[in-house]
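Possible race condition, two jobs.
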Amino acid sequence: MTLEQFFSTPAYQVEKERDLFIMQEVIERMADEKPLQGVSVVFGHLIVMNAMTIVEALWRGGAQIFPCSLFHNASMDALCAELAEYGLPVLPIAEAARQGDIFLDIAGALGQIRTPRAAVEVTRTGELFYQEINCPVISIDRARIKHFEDFMGTGESFQRGWRQLRPDDPLPGKRVVQFGYGKVGRGVAYHNRRAGMDVTVVDISASARQRAAAEGFNVLEAAPTRTLQDALASADIVLGVTGVPGAVGRIVPAEWLRAGKAVLTVMGYDEFGPDIPETEILGGRMPINFCLKRPTLNRYMDPTLTAQALAIEELVRRPEGYPPGIHPLPAAIDGWLLDKWRALWPDEDLTGVEAELGIG
């Protein structure tokens, strides 16, 4: 069986047609123009069905694809096996990293193995790694459209992940101590408050704490104080959303996290660090929404998924414009995606994120 046949399967067609309208347009253009002929791409991504639209866009654009699963959970196994049947085996990370010219990376996992010709990095965590790597990198995390995924989509998906893993433990009324109030943290806090939770924000940044307080949240400094210890002891949920691996574990000792009845979980990778074993974290070291077949709803993922394909095309078409270092997604692409998304979803309530999107 061939990859063309996979893209014709009903399961994939249904996924592509489920709110991924901008990506559909780009896939059609890539098929016509073939801008990626002769390029090989290591696809380091979640192996979930909506992410396969990036694979189709790149493949129809002429690229050779080497997929690997940087973060694994059991829900991905069936799709990984299916891709192998259609001639696209999901490789071990180290093997995939040796193959391609361009990396599509999450959390810098591929870049830590080998320096590519160029890379597209999706996360802030990965930017920290790529700052030390001598290659051109387009950061999706810096784009305005990433706020759809981070603020709107990821905030919503925390609750879906919780309901899947703890279906008999309702969230309304729970006391949440949340470490981190960046793009993702703000969205998670907003959505959890809307769902009836009492949210206390903990952040190392004074400006982030000021913003959280101005936006109506309880706020504590990220320091090992008695006040924070008491908050952790009385919490129902302790949630890491800093975007920095091990950050929570460097702020408070592990015994404080274990002292009360709180469920520990994360929306950023490995927030608690090595002193808290994976078995004590709901969903493990990966973000809790990664347990879902659709970690973020497609309507919020559409611009971000499309941006990743367009960023790879940009690196191929205009290599002279990208010397080694971290670069933002070009403003023209970012603006086009924003305009397209707003035209598709004009009634979406973007309260809390208007300023970041430049639409206030």
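Job #2 (started ~2 s after job #1):
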Amino acid sequence: MEPTKLSHKINADQVKAEVQRFWNVFVNKDADQLTDFYAAEATVFSSLSSRPEPGRLAAARRQREYFHARAALRASVAALDVVVLNDTAAVASYTFQFHAMRNAGTASQIEENITNGRATQVFILDLDGKTLIVHEHLSAIEKH
């Protein structure tokens, strides 16, 4: 039996568009679309976490913390670079700024202001031609 060939190939412009769409979905608080970015086996290091978590769990946590009615979110991306590894995988690395008022639990809120964020997202192209994140690492440079 011959292996299945993909009719699509991942490319840098496609990945750049997905990075922008990711942040637009986040800022627009669209929980379903945010979850759909992640492959079932995806891992995520968030800017606030010390250990990885499954991508879809990270999306659920972000929904709980950031997608409430009082939340105000802003994000921007700069210095976006994409390295295409092969026909089905690419790595996006970039800097970002992120500002949020997020839930801290009960009725309290925490202001989060990341002015020097760094991101790496590894994208794959699945058999249906959908671009998915399989690994994400977000970090922030702490000022002392």
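Residues 12-140 form a domain with the Nuclear Transport Factor 2; Chain: A, fold (CATH 3.10.450.50).
Logs attached separately.
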